[in-house]
Amino acid sequence: MTNGLKELIDSCSLTNFNDDQEKIINNYVATFINTHQLPIKECATGMFLNKNSIEFKNLENNPILQHYSFYIEQCKLLFKHIYNKHVREKKNSDFKTCLSYLVSNSFMILTSINTLLISGCYQSVMTEFRTLYENYIILSFLKKYPETIEPFNDHFFICSLSLEKELAKLKGEDISDKHSQKIQKLKDKYDEHFDDDYGWTYKVIEKRKERNLETIFNESNLNKAFTLLYKESCKFTHSTSYSVLFKPDFIYVKRFLYASIEILRNEFDLIFEAVKMPNKDRMLLHSFMLYLTNSLLVEIENSYS
């Protein structure tokens, strides 16, 4: 299905979109998808012009990768629909836009994971999963504490200024005064230690030494289901004896694939809540997302049997 989300909503004759109607709504969405979507294998392999490439053959012979590729593309369409209709030029746009940027970042990471899987670069999948998980933690924190949105956005500038200052120093250029003034201006606006990696959290995390990802995770009240996978993925980020000598295969990385799907579903739930779209749109689009997710998860689970 290429551009059917508007049709999914506009052609729906249902009038009751309360939560107790979820089963009826899910049946409508499932019927709509099965009627409109293109064959998954053809959609997934169609991106490759060279049918003799290793990537094409890997994708052609792996139904899970076919479903995963299709899933990512359909979720991108779903997110694009939500952003264009419910985020762009709406009230409280800074809040919604910032959250949307983080979801967009997740799509970039998922696309990278998909490319690495198709190419057989399984070790790199774990390092990308680590970034995806950290992105999800920050998204959850910002959703819970909207007062950190502006500092988070401005933190980008102080990071850029600090990096430019260091690069200029390496080149022997003297721009330190100019950059130092801009950095100090941001510190005066926010916090003395605003240039720390997580300095933008100062409004919520008062103690400087506690401004780290672990505290952000705890403050977000997230489930610890992915913690073990995250710790495992960290072992592949740097070159160590373990990351060099251990060679994961596709069976090994399927757990990370499964987790990445769950993370994206959780991110969509956060967006559905933050955007506050009409109940009809929310229920139909949520059901659409649920259908796509469950179809892929079933494909992965069946591969274990």
Report on this model:
The protein is mainly α. 70% of the residues lie in helices and 0% in strands. The protein has 14 helices and no strands. The chain has helices spanning 5-10, 22-36, 40-45, 54-60, 63-86, 93-119, 122-144, 149-171, 176-189, 213-219, 227-234, 241-245, 250-275, 279-302. Helix 6 packs antiparallel against helix 7 (122-144), helix 6 (93-119) packs antiparallel against helix 13 (250-275) and helix 13 runs antiparallel to helix 14 (279-302). The chain is globular. The mean pLDDT is 87.
Which labels suit this protein?
305 residues; mainly alpha; 0% strand
Short note summarizing the structure:
This protein has helices spanning 5-10, 22-36, 40-45, 54-60, 63-86, 93-119, 122-144, 149-171, 176-189, 213-219, 227-234, 241-245, 250-275, 279-302. It is mostly helical and 305 residues long.
- Note the main sheet: none
Strand content: under 5%
Alpha plus pi helix count: 14
The backbone outline, from C-alpha atoms, is globular
- Helix fraction? over 70%
Radius of gyration: 22 Å
Kindly state the mean pLDDT as a whole number?
87
What oligomeric state do the depicted chains represent? single chain
Give the beta-strand count: 0
